[in-house]
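User: Let's play a game. I give you a shape written as tokens, and you guess the letters that built it. Ready? Here's round one.
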């Protein structure tokens, strides 16, 4: 169950919100509405069919000027395909209003359908508190779609660097999906084609599919898998991507990693990103116990599902690597969730944070 708490200034997280609730069971609808109201929602309007849902969406009751969020229970119509269709229609009508999907037992296939339809989140139907938290998150993201203090309304750009195809998905697949979904422009830079782990042409295709699943664009270099070094050529390869993307944030492997390629890419990226505002390191399966994260990105069910789907896109690896086990990936995200008071999270080790006007003492800009 997710935690939800009042904001620092004492305001309830759903203060004044109008929520449209698609739920067929009256008793359950009442329980969910009660949880939403307990966290400040001004009104919860319940409907019981896809047609009513869309009609109420386009034409809210008089007291509701505009919906702040909508909740849709999958049991109200059709299979996974119907869900994507309904979400598509909703988006066409009300592009800015987030939809949270509820299901009796969310599975990966449903989550993929939800994310294709760009649902804000997927929550277990019985988890009323989790639903309230998901609605609050979706509303907060709409208010500040970039999720970064002082970012204004510009589109933010993120570059994520990995040595091999699938490194980035394992490290920060959920974060990439979360950011891309809230309007970030995310580019993945993979430094090799993964020749050490299979046919490069196949791995290249898989890597593109994986990036697409997360909503990111993929750039690929062709450094030698297994013998990367942090020399000038590696630094220049990262610099090319930095010049092209002009990122506000860069994520890369940590120095605390037993894989020589990961360490080389980490070092080269530090040099190439000396002028980038923020740089943080993600956790790889080969990270050592010295990896010390100090930031935790909260993930929703849809983010975790997208991460798993992106990793599954690397078919040639999925069956032969112990660290690609779905249960392990999910429980790792669950473990890190303890630091963010949410169910799932991904850890980051913030290496540097710079500010546009001058630089901080001790930095080497
Ligand atoms: Zn790797």
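Assistant: Ready! My guess for every position:
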């Amino acid at each position: 169950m997710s935690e939800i708490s009042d904001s620092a200034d004492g305001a309830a997280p759903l203060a004044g919100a109008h929520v449209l609730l698609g739920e067929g069971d009256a008793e359950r609808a009442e329980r969910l509405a009660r949880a939403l109201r307990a966290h400040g929602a001004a009104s919860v309007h319940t409907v019981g069919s896809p047609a009513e849902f869309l009609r109420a969406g386009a034409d809210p009751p008089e007291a509701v000027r505009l919906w702040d969020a909508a909740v849709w229970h999958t049991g109200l119509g059709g299979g996974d395909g119907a869900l994507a269709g309904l979400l598509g229609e909703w988006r066409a009508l009300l592009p800015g209003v987030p939809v949270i999907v509820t299901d009796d037992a969310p599975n990966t296939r449903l989550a993929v359908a939800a994310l294709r339809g760009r649902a804000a989140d997927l929550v277990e139907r019985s988890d009323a508190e989790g639903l309230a938290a998901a609605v609050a998150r979706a509303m907060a993201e709409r208010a500040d779609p970039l999720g970064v203090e002082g970012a204004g309304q510009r589109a933010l750009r993120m570059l994520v660097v990995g040595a091999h195809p699938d490194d980035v998905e394992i490290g920060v697949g959920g974060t990439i999906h979360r950011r891309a979904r809230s309007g970030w422009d995310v580019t993945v830079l993979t430094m090799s084609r993964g020749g050490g782990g299979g046919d490069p042409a196949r791995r290249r295709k898989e890597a593109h599919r994986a990036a697409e699943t997360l909503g990111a664009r993929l750039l690929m270099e062709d450094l030698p898998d297994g013998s990367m070094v942090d020399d000038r050529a590696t630094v220049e390869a990262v610099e090319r991507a930095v010049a092209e993307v002009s990122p506000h944030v860069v994520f890369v492997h940590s120095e605390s990693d037993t894989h020589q390629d990961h360490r080389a890419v980490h070092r080269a990226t530090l040099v190439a990103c000396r002028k980038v505002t923020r740089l943080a390191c993600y956790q790889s399966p080969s990270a050592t116990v010295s990896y010390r994260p100090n930031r935790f990105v909260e993930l929703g069910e849809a983010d975790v599902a997208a991460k798993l789907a992106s990793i599954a896109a690397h078919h040639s690896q999925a069956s032969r690597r112990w660290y690609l086990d779905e249960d392990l990936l999910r429980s790792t995200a669950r473990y890190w969730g303890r630091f963010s008071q949410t169910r799932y999270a991904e850890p980051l080790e913030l290496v540097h944070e710079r500010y546009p006007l001058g630089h901080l003492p001790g930095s080497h800009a």
